[in-house]
Amino acid sequence: MQKQRGSTKAVTSATQSVRSSMTSTPFTRALEHLGADQLVEYYRQMMLIRRFEEKCQEMYTRSKIGGFLHLYVGEEATGVGAISNLQPQDHVFTHYRDHGHAIARGLDINPLMAELFGKDTGCSRGMGGSMHFADVTKNFWGGYAIVGSHLLLADGVALQCKMQKTNGVVMVFFGDGATNGGEFYEALNFAQLWKLPVVFVCENNLFAMGTPLEVHSSVTEIYRKANAFDMKSMRIDGNDLLGVREQVGEAVEHARSGKGPVLVEAMTYRFRGHSAQDTQKYRSKEDVEKHRSADPLEAYRKLLIDEEICPASRLDAIDVQIDVEVDASVEFADNSPVPGNEWLTDAGIYAAPLETLTVDPTLV
Amino acid sequence: MAILTVREALQQALHEAMQDERVFIIGEDIGHYGSTYGVTAGFLEKYGPERIRDAPIAEAGILGLATGAAMAGMRPIAEIMSVNFSLLAFDIIINHAAKIYSMFGGKFSVPLVMRTTNGWTQLSATHSQSFDAMFAYIPGLKVVAPATPADMKGMFRAAMADPDPVIFIEHTLMYGVKGEVPDGDYIVPIGKSVLAREGRHLTVVTYSRMVHLSLQAAELLAQEGIEVEVVDLRTLRPLDMSVALESFKKTNHAVVVTEDWQSYGTSAEIATRLYEAGFDYLDAPIQRVNFREVPMPYAKNLEQQVVVTTERIVAAIKKVLNRS
Ligand SMILES: Cc1ncc(C[n+]2csc(CCOP(=O)(O)OP(=O)(O)O)c2C)c(N)n1
Ligand SMILES: [Mg+2]
């Protein structure tokens, strides 16, 4: 989001090593435009998501977290790369696998952990849990747990952007499995028909829960589904952070300039089960290992080191700092109060409660 | 007789159903994933992808295809993973499946079974609802919600034999419940309620998972000398009140326990039927125990207060008997 210049020194040395290869790549262009510090910042965001979620898993096992827990581990490059293109006036919608998008959009992890712990200090006051992170001050309109429907809400916010000329763009995340339901087609048609500023980001992780892509979709190149609407679309490598950043950046500019929506299909892979309950019968350990060995986070770390953007020691120090932050979020959550019983009254279910009560306080 | 869990009883019923070549199962994550709640685990391997159809996430599509196939002579079992997702198929269910027989002059019908689940466990607002009343509101649907492994098996059999669309409601917190299940051919008719426990002081009218909680409450109260009779409705449409009314005439007190919201919910209909037909036998106002009327909170401290507990049932019974 922020465009910071890196220290001149890092830029110079890295530019030299890149120059020796003599080709312009997303990396050289990002370095030139953003500077080294910003490239390191993306690493920090990806690592923060990773460590936050590893802690979530631990806390789930210890029953501090309940309900469904859908982890984003392995898909971080897509969320961080895509959201890095957004301005404060832009908007984000996502599905239940929402931790990564929330962190990439800059939500503080303390209220996120508190939300998972069902605490009053949670980003949704402990009412929503893992699938319902939101922060309206960041135009992060929330994670939605009914597959597909939120695409239409995203169109609605885009309509507001257009009608009130905010220059805002809406980015909406969803899975490959969400592209088979009616809402997806309704959302694409509305958006293209009315030239709404929406960037639809499909995170194609090859499975809808445990159903493989080729079993659930007649067209396995999801981006081609946009063709039916004459909509601009692209398929990108969702595991290459800087590639995602650049290509989604084009999509964002397209939408912002009034040319209409774009469907981006980011190819990625989730390393963990669909949710914490998943026994993963539908894929082999070898397949998962193969993808894990191409971990986007590791690959990006290696890039930063090899291109002399940042020494390993500094990245290690960032990791340590993240661990401290994540531990602090657990402490924050642990020490927070639970939400109060006002949520069980009309005041908890209506913005404007009426005198005639819905909730009978004398109920046994 | 064998002791089976609800899950095992349903598996038996589904395997039996699959003997009929016209039967196929369509639903999300029923095959490759291995089935969300384990009921169809192993079915894909046994029957193959022609008959165990892993469907795209498209609930209207699932019900729409099942309805069409049923009209033309197949015997589809449509599985909707969680009843909350059935909302996306309500047009098909209500405007189509429920109407077709009558609207086309009784010339053809929709022999469809839709299996789905109620349930909650800190899943928050959109994943913890009950739409029992919304299904039961619709003439043209038959709606069953059995409580025991035996009834699961026997009523599933009845549902499959039925020429009309049957909504078969299960419960995610009930799959491990055990009970005796008759071997082989076993059928429990749709639309017949049953006594789950005898007593003489008060009648609890209930169904599905709430039968088990009501029985626990009755057990607790028995230690205090209060004898509670528990009626398991088993079917919501058509609603058989005969057993409940018979019991009410004897006990003159009633509590209705249902795991849904109170206003316009299933308990509203059940209590009204008791008032209408049992007014002369009424000794005290009927109490209802239900979900508190809020979208389900995620936080455990709140969720625990929204859901029905044995303690709440006990308190309601004592209130009606004026013995608190
Ligand atoms: C309407 C609806 N149907 C079914 C579900 C259950 N469900 C939740 S996530 C999911 C799979 C979604 O897969 P995909 O869209 O590929 O996203 P991913 O989880 O892979 O990120 C399913 C079937 C749901 N939440 N909503
Ligand atoms: Mg997917």
What does this structure look like?
The complex is a heterodimer of chains A (364) and B (324). Chain A has 364 residues and is α/β, with parallel strands linked by helices. Chain A has a single domain, classed as Thiamin diphosphate (ThDP)-binding fold, Pyr/PP domains (Rossmann fold, 3-Layer(aba) Sandwich), CATH 3.40.50. Chain A is built from 14 helices and 8 strands. Chain A has a 6-stranded parallel β-sheet with strand order 2-1-3-4-8-7, sandwiched between helices. In chain A, strands 5-6 form a two-stranded antiparallel ribbon. In chain A, helix 3 packs across helix 4. Chain A starts with 7 loop residues before the first helix and ends in a 15-residue tail after the last helix. The N terminus of chain A is likely disordered. Chain B is of the alpha/beta class and 324 residues long. Chain B folds into 2 domains: 180 residues, Thiamin diphosphate (ThDP)-binding fold, Pyr/PP domains (Rossmann fold); 127 residues, Rossmann fold (3-Layer(aba) Sandwich). Chain B contains 12 helices and 14 strands. The chains are: A alpha/beta (364), B alpha/beta (324). At the A-B interface, strand 6 of A face helix 3, strand 14, helix 11 and helix 12 of B. Bound molecules: thiamine diphosphate (TPP) and magnesium ion. Thiamine diphosphate sits at the interface of chains A and B.
